[in-house]
Specification:
Blueprint: H1 2-16, H2 22-25, H3 37-125, E1 127-133, H4 143-157, E2 163-170, H5 176-196, E3 204-211, H6 221-227, E4 229-235
Parallel strand pairs: 2-3
Antiparallel strand pairs: 1-4, 2-4
Helix pairs in contact: 1-3, 4-5
Length: 246
């Protein structure tokens, strides 16, 4: 009689859905009230097998064991899915990194090719440069001349084998001594701009020519404007060298 009562009680607990093993239930990954299909299937299977094998008590024990096994496989499936997602994300990040490295290599190759083309062009022409004009009796570099000077200075700084010759001139008016000194100041100021662009001072050769040797410009104000200048020439080794004159 007592055995029948115990079996009936156990069966009612199993059929009534009384929660078993509360300590394990608190560790579930799924949200409360959202049981996994594997756990539900395991519980039903265990309940059926336990009931056949050992009656109501076996049904309770089998249902609990089946739920544990089913939930274990459910957790394994979740871990595998998370691992697969992490692996896919890592592959995407690796592909993006490979793409960025390829772009960087392409940019570096383009920069090297551009530098080689400039060197080749300079080698064919032996020199590259510009002229900087000045006002009468003035040695200051104009704002208009600053940008091209900085550009040629940056080019010269990027080519360690190149030298820069800076030659100052003045128009025929004034004494020879004064024009020599004025043309030197003009050349020195232009060289300072090139130095600020990154050209080492030892690679800049300064020459002061004073007034022009051509006497056919006397009285020609337009021709005077062309003579008040500093010539800047970027030269490769082997081209004509300009001696400094202090």
């Amino acid at each position: 009689m007592k055995t029948s009562t115990l079996r009936a009680t156990a069966l009612s607990l199993a059929l009534g859905g009384c929660p078993l093993l509360p300590a394990y239930a608190g560790e579930a990954v799924d949200p409360p009230g959202a049981g996994s299909k594997q756990a539900d299937l395991g519980a039903v299977t265990g309940l059926a097998v336990g009931a056949v094998a050992a009656g109501p008590i076996g049904a309770v024990v089998g249902g609990a064991a089946g739920a544990l096994i089913g939930d274990h496989y459910h957790r394994q499936a979740q871990s595998k899915a998370a691992l697969a997602a992490d692996l896919e994300r890592s592959e995407s990040e690796r592909a993006a990194l490979v793409h960025d490295v390829a772009q960087l290599n392409g940019s570096l190759s383009e920069a090297r090719a551009h530098s080689a083309a400039l060197a080749a062009q300079l080698g064919h022409t032996d020199q590259l440069g510009l002229d900087v004009s000045f006002r009468t009796d003035d040695d200051s570099v104009s704002a208009q001349a600053m940008s091209p000077l900085l550009k040629i200075g940056a080019l010269a700084a990027s080519m360690p084998q190149a030298q820069v010759s800076v030659a100052g001139y003045a128009d025929p008016r004034g004494s020879e001594a004064y024009n020599d000194e004025l043309s030197l100041r003009r050349a020195t100021n232009v060289a300072a701009v090139l130095t600020s662009a990154g050209v080492p001072r030892e690679r800049i050769l300064i020459e002061a020519h004073g007034k022009s040797a051509d006497g056919n410009t006397d009285g020609d104000l337009d021709a005077y404007a062309l003579e008040r200048r500093v010539t800047v020439r970027l030269q490769l080794p082997g081209s004509a060298q300009v001696a400094a004159r202090d």
